[in-house]
TrEMBL record:
<dbReference type="Pfam" id="PF07366">
    <property type="entry name" value="SnoaL"/>
</dbReference>
<dbReference type="InterPro" id="IPR009959">
    <property type="entry name" value="Cyclase_SnoaL-like"/>
</dbReference>
<dbReference type="InterPro" id="IPR032710">
    <property type="entry name" value="NTF2-like_dom_sf"/>
</dbReference>
<protein>
    <submittedName>
        <fullName>Ester cyclase</fullName>
    </submittedName>
</protein>
Length: 142
């Protein structure tokens, strides 16, 4: 069995960075479920097939820098910085997050994911730059 961190790096590179969603079956089980990226939504492999092109429609040159990893049994925990170039502005955007990935053999069986999507969407211009500050001060975003 391959090292989980190496498998995960290959998954990030092939599927997310290169957009090869047809490679998903090589990395995830048919029953893969991801929780946490969107509140109260369980994402399946089919959802990933839609999510990857959606993110790649916003970003070019996607890179994943793993800042921390810890492997224990069938689990891998990673903290990472994701960066890329905004397709609309050409500027570099970056956001951080973490995933707890469960493996079944050499494939991802599930994950708990938490990423700074507010930061990403703020940098892309979809939300005000000070969205978090506005929300913490009880301001409504309009």
């Amino acid at each position: 069995m391959a090292d989980k961190l190496d498998l995960y790096r290959q998954f990030l590179e092939e599927v997310w960075a290169n957009g090869r969603v047809e490679r998903l079956p090589a990395f995830v089980t048919d029953a893969t479920e991801s929780h946490g990226l969107i509140t109260d939504v369980c994402m399946t492999r089919g959802d990933l097939e839609d999510l990857v092109p959606a993110l790649r429609a916003l970003l070019d040159a996607i890179q994943h820098d793993i800042l921390y990893s810890y492997e224990n049994g069938r689990f891998l925990h990673v903290m990472m910085r994701v960066s890329g170039l905004s397709k609309s502005s050409g500027e570099t955007v970056a956001f951080t997050g973490q995933s707890l990935i469960e493996f079944d053999g050499d494939k991802i069986a599930g994950s708990q994911d938490h990423y700074d999507l507010i930061g990403l969407f703020s940098q892309l211009g979809f939300l005000p730059k000070d969205t978090v500050e506005l929300c913490l001060s009880s301001e409504k975003i309009s």
